[in-house]
Design goal:
The complex is a heterodimer.
Chain A: E1 6-7, H1 11-14, E2 19-22, E3 30-33, E4 39-40, E5 42-54, E6 63-69, E7 72-78, H2 83-91, E8 96-107, E9 115-125, H3 128-153, H4 160-165, H5 170-183, H6 188-201, H7 215-219, H8 223-228, H9 231-246, E10 253-254, H10 255-264, H11 269-282, E11 285-286, E12 292-295
Parallel strand pairs in A: 1-5
Antiparallel strand pairs in A: 2-3, 3-4, 5-6, 5-8, 6-7, 8-9, 10-12, 11-12
Chain B: H1 2-16, H2 22-35, H3 40-50, E1 63-64, E2 76-82, E3 86-92, E4 95-106, E5 109-115, E6 128-139, E7 142-147, E8 152-156, E9 177-178, E10 191-207, E11 210-221, E12 224-230, E13 241-252, E14 255-260, E15 265-269, H4 277-280, H5 288-294, E16 297-309, E17 314-318, E18 330-331, E19 335-336, E20 340-350, E21 355-360, H6 362-369, H7 373-383, H8 388-397, E22 401-411, E23 414-424, H9 429-441
Parallel strand pairs in B: 1-2, 5-7, 9-10, 12-14, 21-23
Antiparallel strand pairs in B: 2-4, 2-6, 3-4, 4-5, 6-7, 6-8, 10-11, 10-13, 11-12, 13-14, 13-15, 16-20, 16-22, 17-20, 18-19, 20-21, 22-23
Classes of the chains: A alpha+beta, B alpha+beta.
């Protein structure tokens, strides 16, 4: 058996998947097929582990962890059959940068609803450099798939044979054809912005709140960046700054104080909640206790 | 896909007496194989039956040449010369039994064969035989001929086929196919290549009881490096730039190797026809996906994440007789022995396009650990656990981006690199991210 490759894949793409494809036969591997045609049996992700919880019992623990990347959150479940990963998860103190390698899983509580998760083979606490390198790899991988998906959208219908004839490897062509048949024409601009988001995450000139950066860089962001940013992101930057500012005792910024301070900056409750949710998803903040927000 | 189906479409047409169009057969065959996913044999039989033909006609009277063979044929006939015969014992559930294996060939090529029931089968080197009802499989990209229960082998007159030359592919006439080193794949023949000799040495080999001098070494162009064997003295010297026309490619454990002999023409070009040796000696960076497609490579560089360290890594003890790694002080062959301590890593490097087993020897492992094997022995003694060294390696290396360089071979379990040099990567992610973002935003 040739070992399955470990896909580098953003949560923003993985969690949009609603197709599971079997290889046929009893022991053939199964794949989660993403909207861009990645056929994922194994994946490798690095992000911020924001919380770990035992959702099983004390006798039979099942650890659920959330790992955030710049585009969304991976859900990781480890139980008795993943002893090493479970042991690591039981000991990690969030927040932490974590690398997770594991198998793709889907859960469908009712027809039409599909949740994706990872069953980990390996969990390891890593440093920021490893996380940054992973984001770069995930961006490269996403860029390749975007090109393939664009090509497939120009074909009618996009068949495996036709894609192979264009020079795509068999596996890639099979994934693209399956995705095209199941998802139809997906909105590629959504994934182009995921890619841009991932890339900007790595660049200090796009980090609005970055106290460790020298002042000129922070005060004078590239004009291009401004133009490309969505209005919601400005609110996020303000809220992120407030959370850092209001965290006076190291236990996180209290919600009430945050609500008040945000209102003074012209951000209403709904806007604040939306911004905080985005920041949570991106792994920039977390909730150490209920009602308090803390910057990572 | 279409090209692969073509010979099978022809088989079906032959069995049906051409009363159905080739396009329709091809479409049906594709349907059976891709939509219903039945085996090729079932698909072919079903289609013949559906159109009122007799599936048995599929295997009648079709004699193929070695070049025409494709993997997955269930019943094929050949007229071929036995190039070599070897015998070995294999273990089956019913006890051990002998089988015969070797190469057979005809003017179009050679193929490995295995005879699973050799009783009463007198195969001898040089025999011309007619084989009925053989089946074929693919192994490492090459078609193998299998003679099973149904196979019938009859000896024919020796002059029905010209002699096959020592397992070398016959040289099709016409101009050589131009190739770069990176394009060389097992089975190619009549290759035209421009490359520089990075190293060359002469050695004596025994070919069928005859002493021959072969010059072998490494050739390179700007796409990569390849090992070569020259079976004639072309007066090669290190640094020469050569134009070789009429070479052929064989592989050793998946690594493509270029061979050329008196049928090839070798011309020396000016020294400036290719970049200097120092530049060509650089190790090309490759994606694992591309290495998998080629089956291996000489002195290549891979960047990826070390995602796993396998059992049997870290501090190990080897048998003093055969160097096998001991399990609980016991060698699989030599029993309980006093082992010699050694360090190694058997890791998995994954670059997002594929995965490869990477084996690091003692010196590299010492370098990565910043510890000698003696220090590791002391550490294991103190912890009373040999596994502490492996745990430390896992802490140090797992999930880290690494760059590894070495020769890549392949077998049934995939690719393997014996790592010559390795380092943990420090990549300037900002530079590449900025370039990608600029490209994206135009």
């Amino acid at each position: 058996m040739i070992r399955e490759v470990a896909w580098r894949l953003f949560a923003g793409e993985y969690n949009e998947s609603t197709l599971e494809a079997g290889g046929g036969g009893d022991r053939a591997p199964t794949y989660v097929v993403t909207p861009l045609g990645a056929r994922v049996n194994r994946l490798f992700v690095v992000g911020v582990l924001t919380d770990v919880e035992n959702v099983g019992t004390d006798g039979q623990p099942m650890w659920r962890a959330r790992v955030s990347d710049p585009t969304g959150t991976f859900h990781v479940y480890a139980g008795q059959y993943q002893p090493e990963a479970a042991a690591t998860l039981s000991k990690v103190k969030p927040p932490a940068f974590a690398a997770v390698m594991g198998k793709s899983r889907t859960y469908s509580p009712e027809p039409g609803t599909v949740y994706t998760s990872i069953r980990p083979e390996m969990v390891k606490v890593v440093d920021e450099n490893v996380r940054d390198y992973w984001i770069l790899e995930a961006c490269r991988s996403l860029k390749n798939r975007l090109e393939g998906a664009r090509e497939a959208q120009g074909m009618d219908p996009a068949t495996k044979d036709a894609l192979v004839a264009l020079g795509y490897p068999e596996d890639t062509a099979e994934g693209l054809a399956a995705a095209s048949a199941h998802y139809g024409k997906v909105d590629l601009s959504r994934y182009t912005s995921l890619l841009a988001e991932g890339l900007r995450y790595l660049l200090p000139e796009y980090r609005a709140f970055a106290p460790e950066e020298p002042a000129p860089a922070a005060a004078k962001p590239a004009p291009k960046a401004e133009a490309a940013r969505a209005p919601g992101e400005e609110a996020e930057d303000v809220v992120l700054a407030l959370i850092a500012e209001l965290d006076r005792d190291g236990k996180g910024a209290p919600w009430d104080a945050l609500l008040e301070a945000a209102a003074k900056k012209g951000i209403r409750k709904e806007g604040l909640e939306e911004a905080v949710n985005e920041l949570l998803d991106k792994g920039l903040v977390y909730e150490p206790v209920l009602g308090r927000m803390k910057k990572i | 896909m279409k090209e692969e189906l073509e010979p099978h479409v022809r088989d079906i047409l032959r069995a049906l007496g051409d009363k159905v169009s080739a396009d329709e057969i091809e479409r049906e065959l594709g349907n059976y194989l891709n939509v219903y996913r039945v085996s090729l044999d079932t698909a072919k039989r079903s289609i013949v039956k559906k159109h009122g033909g007799n599936p048995a006609d599929l295997s009648l009277g079709i004699t193929k040449t070695v070049r025409e063979l494709v993997p997955g044929e269930q019943s094929v006939s050949l007229l071929a010369r036995i190039v070599s015969v070897n015998e070995k014992e294999i273990e089956t559930e019913a006890g051990s039994k002998p089988i015969l294996y070797g190469f057979l060939g005809d003017p179009t090529g050679t193929a490995p064969y295995t005879a699973w029931n050799p009783e009463g089968l007198a195969l001898a080197k040089g025999d011309v035989v007619r084989i009925l009802n053989a089946y074929t499989k693919e192994f490492k990209g090459r078609v193998e001929v299998h003679l099973g229960n149904r196979a019938v082998v009859t000896k024919e007159a020796a002059d029905l086929l010209p002699p096959v030359e020592g397992g070398r592919p016959s040289m099709p006439s016409g101009p050589a196919t131009a190739a770069k080193v990176v394009d060389l794949k097992e089975g190619l023949s009549n290759v035209g290549l421009t490359a520089r000799v990075l190293s060359v040495e002469a050695r004596e080999v025994n070919v069928a009881g005859e002493k021959k001098t072969v010059r072998s070494g490494v050739l390179a162009d700007d796409s990569g490096k390849v090992q070569f064997s020259a079976w004639k003295d072309f007066g090669l010297a290190e640094g020469d730039v050569l134009r070789i026309e009429g070479g052929y490619v064989k592989s050793w454990r998946g690594i493509p190797q270029l061979s050329f002999d008196e049928r090839a023409t070798v011309a020396k070009l000016g020294a400036d026809a290719l970049p200097p040796a120092a530049e060509l000696a650089q190790s090309p960076r490759m994606w694992i996906e591309d290495l998998a497609e080629r089956g291996g490579g000489v002195d290549v560089t891979i960047r990826g994440i070390l995602i796993d360290i396998k059992d049997g890594s870290g501090l190990v003890y080897r048998c003093p007789e055969c160097r096998r790694v001991l399990r609980k002080s016991v060698c699989r062959i030599h029993g309980e022995v006093q082992g010699n301590a050694d360090l190694r890593v058997k890791g998995v490097v994954d670059d997002g396009s594929g995965a490869i087993t990477a084996v690091f020897g003692r010196e590299l492992t010492e370098l990565l650990l910043e510890k000698t094997v003696e220090e590791c022995i002391a550490q294991a003694k103190e912890a009373m656990d040999q596994e502490v060294v492996r745990d430390e390696l896992a802490d140090l290396l797992i999930a880290q981006p690494v760059e590894v360089r070495g020769n890549v071979t392949s077998d049934d379990y995939g690719l393997m690199m014996i790592v010559d040099t390795a380092r943990v990567l420090k990549v300037d992610v900002q530079e590449e991210a900025r370039a990608m973002l600029e490209e994206l935003e135009g």
